[in-house]
Amino acid sequence: MMARRLRRVVTLRMWRGFGTISLPRQRDRVAFGDLDNWTSPSRAPLGVFETSKGTDGRNLFTCLHLPQDLTQGSRDDDSKAMLESLSQHGAFYLKLPNNTMDGLKQLWNCFNTYNSLDLEERVKIALTKEMCETLKIDIPTAGYTAFKAENTALALKGDTNSTGDCCEKFTYHQNIPVDNFPGKALGKALTEAYYSELIDISETLFKHIGPELLGFNDTQMAMFPKSLNAGSLLRYLSYPDFSAESNNKDRIRMGAHSDLTFFTLLFQTPSDSGFVSLEAKIDGKWTPIPAVEGTIVVQIGEFLRYASEGRISSTEHRVVLPETNAEAKGSARESLALFMSPDMDTKFKTLPGGTFHQVHEELNKDGCKEISFGEILEAVISRGFVRG
Q1: pTM for this one?
Q2: Secondary structure E strands in 11-69
Q3: Spacing of C-alpha 219 from chain mean position
């Protein structure tokens, strides 16, 4: 029943009037190896790469390597640094293995080639209601999603001032045909390979963060998905050149929110102009989180905060716009995000604060019963991932 209701939402989301939007300029086609403006540790903002050994005492983010740093001699120091990051602001950089980066570069080139097509060509890969039913695709955001067709801040935080996400998206599902994939057969094969790599990384993170770092018991570990593939969602997001001036709104590409996940693994590219769009709230202030070559950003979601009983923080983050049209030129960026969420039937009680608490309270006005993730997801989709 849940899958049928979510599939019904999908057609509304994809086809309601996205042809009326005048889309800003996407990034010109460029090979991954030609991307500039990556941030190195030496150029990063103060504290971004400091560990618990740092002299400034700010440990905003920790850069760790997998699997060595979590399984070999330096583990104690890195575990201490990671726990400090998680408890303060819920995020850290993670160094990707070289073979993962090699595949990611090829995948990015496939998406970038697709992204350089005219809008009329890009929307041709969108799924229809009939295709979703025939192919048994029960993810309501699967496939292509148009510019401003979703409103993440409204869905996850109830922000009624948000005007929608200033990006196009593509959400992976194994049943999507190759003709509906950016890059066709090659794009699908590379996406599946990268997805598999992130699942392996996620398993290592689960084992380290849960029972080893936070001392989770069997009850707490039972909240994690029985199959990581079932609880994972991989999305490509493309943010075109766009400015607050042309939007006549605040400097927002995607409004402030924390993800309804255990954690999110985010890869991002730098913009041609060097403008940093991603910001996280650190010590009560919005802090730019730059693209660092060879890394992903691990952002803790609401459900890991819940599982830890508030011992660690979820990452409140947003994506911002340049202030003027002049600054917008060259500000396009792309990201690939794996959202690691619970199984649909996993039930939760509320925890004060954050997005999870707000959605839970809306569904549970009569008492303190447990609410399933499937119910939470359906509520979120209905209020922010369908635009009229």
Answers
A1: 0.84
A2: 63-65
A3: 27
